[in-house]
Design a protein that fits this description.
Rossmann fold; Alpha-Beta Plaits; 11 helices; 2 domains; globular; alpha/beta
Length: 309
């Protein structure tokens, strides 16, 4: 059973097709990065999955339950963190969590709330009123509330937007720990370097349509073209060594930037030939590593290439 599966999922607002025949395949136990430019249909898709908005066409199942008929079951099994979690400002963090916990019938609620506030880093601040919480504390409380029902799937909409570096790091660590517990995480975010750090699979939509849905490593490799790229580090690297590398069969390009040699080669084994040539020329190579495009580079390339229409 897939955590999320949609076929030809469609939603219109007037004449605008916000989501257009969307196929999603989210396997259980993965962290799935759900990406797209502004207006791509990400939030509308999430709203349909959660039962907040009805589709106009297609089918969708969440943890095996149809989104048209299984709203109650889905909301019991799924944790949801909206971009701006709603709270009762005059109540404490603990009181907010207990209120929402009672709504979904959480057992041993006091112990569950205490454990989750500790897990998300709010231990000792739970009795403070939410109106005094920073943005980062609000996000942590929102995650704790989303996890109250011990969900098998957590849907997160822009969980680190507006957080400082420490807050963003802490949220990523929480996401990694959830994966260790075999919780599926469906992560919608514009902060692509963070998605790259934690995701197993990415789905990229534009104009409500799926452009790419692949394991992230496969996607990054596919966007760099046929060549494999390497980075060499050695003291004393200069353009003369790039010229040596360029003469080796299978090297497509070689350049030195900021004291490092960057290669594009037809086959990974060519890097070994380059290393032998550089060492033979008297260079003491200290580091060789295969490089990948960043997710941001790959995303912009795909979104730019796949024109709508």
């Amino acid at each position: 059973m897939k955590a999320i599966e949609t076929r030809d999922l469609t939603r219109r607002f007037g004449r605008i097709e916000a989501v257009n025949s969307l196929d999603l395949n989210v396997e259980e136990g993965v962290i799935y990065g759900f990406l797209g430019p502004n207006g791509a249909g990400k939030s509308t898709t999430i709203n349909m999955l959660m039962g907040f908005v009805k589709p106009h066409g297609g089918t969708a199942k969440v943890l095996g339950h149809d989104i048209r008929t299984g709203h109650y079951e889905i909301r019991k099994l799924v944790g949801y963190l909206p971009e701006r979690p709603p709270f009762y400002e005059s109540m404490s963090g603990v009181a907010n969590a207990k209120y929402f916990g009672r709504l979904i019938g959480v057992k041993d609620l006091d112990a569950r709330v205490d454990a989750l506030l500790k897990q998300v880093g709010l231990e000792g601040r739970g009795q403070d009123k939410v109106r005094g919480y920073s943005h980062g504390m609000r996000q942590r409380l929102g995650i704790a509330i989303a996890l109250l029902g011990d969900p098998k799937l957590l849907i997160m909409d822009e969980p680190t937007t507006g957080l400082d570096p420490q807050g963003s790091h802490d949220i990523r660590e929480i996401i990694r720990r959830l994966k260790d517990r075999h919780v599926t995480v469906f992560l919608s975010s514009h902060i692509l370097h963070e998605v790259q750090e934690v995701s197993d699979v990415v789905g990229i939509i534009k104009g409500g349509r799926m452009l790419v849905e692949q394991p992230i490593d496969t996607f990054l490799k596919s966007t760099r073209g046929g060549a494999t790229t390497f980075e060499f580090y050695a003291p004393g690297l200069d353009d003369a060594y790039a010229d040596i590398a360029q003469k080796i069969n299978g090297v497509e390009s070689a350049s030195v930037r900021d004291g490092r040699l960057y290669l594009a080669v037809a086959e990974p084994s060519v890097a070994e030939d380059v290393n032998a040539a550089l060492v033979g020329a008297g260079l003491r190579v200290r580091e060789i590593r295969e490089t990948m495009p960043t997710l941001e580079d790959a995303f912009l390339k795909v979104v730019g290439e796949r024109k709508e229409g």
